[in-house]
Amino acid sequence: MYLTVRDATKTYGTFTALDRVSIEIEKGEFVCLLGPSGCGKTTLLRLIAGLTDLDGGEITLEGATLSDLPTRKRGFGIVFQSYSLFPNMTVAENIGYGLKIRGAPKDEVATRVKELLALVKLPQVADNLPGQLSGGQQQRIALARAIAVDPRVLLLDEPLSALDAKVRATLRDEIRQVQRSLGIPTLMVTHDQEEALALADKIICMNHGVVVQAGTPEDLYHRPATRFVAEFMGISNLLPASEIERHFPDLLTTRPSSDEPYLACIRPEQIGVTPAKDGTATVRSISFLGNLRRLEVDSPAGPLLVETHGGNACRAGDRVNLSIEPQACTWVIDDAARPETAPA
Amino acid sequence: MSVAGHTTRHPARRRFDADRLLTLACVGLPLIGLILFFAYPMAIVFLRSITVDGSYGLGNYAEVLGSSGFWRATRHSLVMGGATTALSVFLGFIIAHGLYRCAFPGKWLIRSVIVLPLLAPSLVQALGLIFLLGRNGIISRALGIEIEIYGFWGLLIANTLYALPQAVMIIGAALILLDARTYEAAEVMGAPPWRQFRDLTIPAARFGILNAAFVCFTITITDFGNAAVIGGDYSVLATEIYSQVVGQRNFNMGAVVGIMLLLPTVISYSIERQAMKRQQAGQTTGQVAYRPEFAALRDLSMAALSLLICAGILSVIGIVVYASFVTLWPYNMTLSPKHYDITLAGGYSSLWMTIVISLAAAAGGTVAVFLLGLGLRRLPQAIAQPIQILAAMPAAVPGMVLGLAYILTFNSTATPLYLLYGTAALIAIVNFYHYHTQAFLTVMTGFRQLPEALEEAAGSLGAGLGRTARDIVAPFIAPMLVSVFFFLFMRSMVTLSAVVFLTTPDLSVAAVTIMRLDDAGLTSQAAAFSTCVMAVVCAAVLSMKATLALMGRRTMAKGAE
Questions:
Q1: B125, B318 in Cβ contact below 8 A?
Q2: B540 part of a folded domain
Q3: In this structure, are B177 and B244 located in the same domain?
Q4: What residues in chain B have per-residue pLDDT under 70?
Q5: Is the ipTM of this complex over 0.90?
Q6: pLDDT value at residue B277
Q7: Is residue A339 scored above 60 in pLDDT?
Q8: Closest chain B C-alpha to A77 CA, distance in angstroms
Q9: What is the domain range of residue B78?
Q10: Cβ contact A297:A191 at 8 Å
């Protein structure tokens, strides 16, 4: 393991921000800390950066403990949500600042700055002040500044949250590309599950100061462990076992044999809809979302959300039959903790 | 989920780190200064007030409270404070309303004239009134009437002129907060202008007015210069302290009067701070500036009133400059520079000394509050808060009381601090601590605008505290530091109350020299000296504006390369 956090604990007065959290990052890995606001993800990032002190637990990098090292000696790169470029320095001075501190010769700094400006696709802004750039441009410079010093770990604190949708999507891809090509182990904090799904090798989903589930994006989307993860990672239909037993008995085959109060989790795109005059369900409403349609369906098991692509000619009020493949159903623990931020 | 500003309750896990030591030094040095040069002298003045013949007791208080002179001075101080407050807040509201809620040309003129009284020693207003309305005053002679300007009325006008700039600034700041959208909403809902004034403008200015009232009250009852020059027989607490200490060499009784003067100012100051908090809590971001449309009746009357008030200020200050050039007031009105040949009271040596002292107070003070602000950001709230409260306290202490505290502390051979007595350094120090609060709060405002992430970003790139302070923090709050430097310089140039006790025959400052010249009947020379001080301070104002403009331009130019 490259970077390890073991049993990290942090409290503010009576509020426990982090409760014995353990995570691991491998060399070259892109890890996302995902969760609603207040879940402790930013606190964890700040602990790793050394911006906040641990109350308990340990953080190690390649086996060596980091607890004694102040931020400036950790050799990490950080990108903040608020860009945080130094307003009194030009773009080139911003990017070169870390190298200057390390005593690099002037011409070496200049060469490196040039390289990095090319890498973030902004070669022409070297002599501008940060205030003259757009938000997206500023964040690219912040990224260049963070990777200029060949950081041992790159920490991204909601780097895309302040940007508008289109810039966000482009910059997201660029961050991924840069991270891949340089192979810097990266930890990104985000509350946007789409961002996490698109970027991460591994997602660590947090809530109320603990890790709820960690795994690949596919794992978390298709095999959520708890109701919280299921609801946070996109839209899902959650049905109690009793309803499944009555209306979709086929699905019971995958149910784990345990006394835990399991819920069936079915993603809306996993439900098939067939129009039928004697159908058991009724389409209540349809939203057209461009590439797909979202149907609200009243089924005997309760209201369900269904997403269909292309030529489904259903209209509101039509009667339909619903079909669900047994392997499309995941059973999740009902942790009853509803996410504080509803997923988009 | 910002966790900025919090520091762990158990930081012990981290090893010794140079930055922590530096943080301690940043806070520690200014804190030692505050304790040594503010808290300790204030404790001494309190102890001396309860010292009777070498032991402690309330005898001094009994004596003071039993004297009719004290009660007369207290009554005068309160009446004068109340009257000045009412008048300056009323006039201040008119000007602030004119500046920020009305449309008329020439506002820059009003803005410039209104700050003039701040640029001169407070006794200049009194001098000006004497030249205008005194027995030999221009107006009295022209009208052939005898006005008794010494006493209540003269002091009231002088104090009002002195308090007015503060009132305008505070009320104006409150009015600016009420933005255009609020008025647009009222307009859409059909509110006529007078209702908008009554329902929007007045409530918005409420805290500003309250705040201004307390500030005006405090500066009036603590001012010494005007009372000394034009108060005549109308004794107030500030002159009472002076006569106890300088006239009767009765330090303990002076201390008692000082403590009694401290009571109303402390109360007034703490209420004012609360009012300020309430006002700040109501602030919103993303303001849309209000641009008043021309309304003939409102704007013409407001402009006329504002100009009238400004004409008053201008004539009082202007007559001092004029009189300084008149050969023999009021008999030979030809102009000559002969009064500038000042021989009494050490000539111009005290002016040069004051400039040196002011530069020292400004430079040292700016560095001290910068370090304090820098260090406080890195301390846990539980430790930072008490230090902040201590740093904001000096504003509640009248200059006379602080000066008295200094003479009691530093003129005693009991401690090595005695070495400072009679030095220019001590005068620079008293000037800095007298105006510590304003300097500190200004710098803290700058620090609050500095995003914590900037310092964290510098830290992650490998910069230590020293480097971050130099490369990131100082450039960011440079405009605030420039303002603080010039504020301390200008106040040190003109202040009288705190330094009046600390000057010696060999070491005087400008304001004291003016008072001495006036006392000696050399009113024209006092006017000439005042004019020199005002010239220095005006030059300082212009340099400040130029520096700030240059800094703004350089930043722009750097980006345009």
A1: no
A2: no
A3: yes
A4: 1-16, 278-287, 345, 555-561
A5: no
A6: 73
A7: no
A8: 6
A9: 50-281+296-331
A10: no
Q: Which of B13, B17, B459 has its CB closest to that of A54?
A: B13
Amino acid B459: pLDDT: 92
Q: What is residue B345's predicted lDDT score, i.e. its pLDDT?
A: 60
B461: chain A residues, CB-CB within 8 Å: 72, 77, 97-98, 101, 145, 149
Written as one letter, the residue type at B78 is L
Verify whether the Cβ–Cβ distance B453 to A97 is below 8 Å. Answer: no
Sign of CA dihedral B294, B299, B303, B304: positive
Pick the residue from chain B with its C-alpha nearest to A36: B1
- Cβ of residue A80 closer than 8 Å to a chain B Cβ: yes
Task: Decide which of A281 and B290 is more confident.
Answer: A281
> Is B463 found in the same domain as B426?
yes
Amino acid identity of residue B556, one-letter, is M
Is residue B179 a contact partner of residue B290, using CB atoms and an 8 Å limit? yes
Within a domain: B536:
no
pLDDT digits (tens, 9 = 90+) for B227-265: 988 998 999 999 999 988 888 888 888 899 999 889 888
Chain A CB within 8 Å of residue B463 CB: yes
Distance from CA of A192 to the nearest CA of B (A): 15
* Least trusted range by pLDDT, from A155-159, A256-260, B395-399: A256-260
Average pLDDT of chain A, as a whole number: 90
Q: How far apart (Å, rounded) are the C-alpha atoms in residues B476 and B469?
A: 10
What local confidence, expressed as pLDDT, does residue A337 receive? 43
Q: Are residues B134 and B265 in the same domain?
A: yes
B325 and B369 part of one domain: no
Task: Tell whether omega for the bond before A105 is within 30 degrees of 0, i.e. cis.
Answer: no
Q: Do B459 and A55 touch (CB under 8 A)?
A: no
Cβ–Cβ below 8 Å for B461 and A101: yes
In a domain, B313, yes or no: yes
Same domain, B256 and B378: no
The CATH number covering residue B168 comes to 1.10.3720.10
Asked if B454 and A84 come within 8 Å (Cβ–Cβ), the reply is yes
Q: Which of residues 138-197 of A touch B (CB under 8 A)?
A: 142, 145-146, 149, 155
The SS3 of residue B176 is helix
CA count, 13 A, side-chain hemisphere, A110: 4
Q: What is the mean pLDDT of residues A240-256?
A: 84
Domain-located, residue B151: yes
What is the count of residue pairs from A and B with beta carbons less than 8 Å apart? 113
Q: Which residues pair with residue A331 across a beta bridge?
A: A264
Q: What is the pLDDT of residue A225?
A: 92
Same domain, yes or no: B137 and B220: yes
pLDDT tens-digit map of A63-121:
999 988 888 889 999 999 988 999 989 999 999 999 999 999 999 999 999 999 999 99
Domain shared by B61 and B205, yes or no: yes
**Which residue, of B503, B524, B551, is where some domain finishes?**
B503
pLDDT for res B556: 65
Q: Helices marked H in chain A — which ranges?
A: 41-49, 71-74, 91-101, 106-119, 135-147, 165-182, 193-199, 217-222, 227-232, 241-247
Q: Same structural domain for residues B38 and B152?
A: no
Q: What is the total count of domains within chain B?
A: 2
3-state secondary structure of B55: strand
The answer, yes or no, to whether residue A338 has pLDDT greater than 70, is no
> Last residue of a domain, which of B503, B521, B543?
B503
For residue A139, which residues of chain B lie inside 8 Å, CB to CB?
none
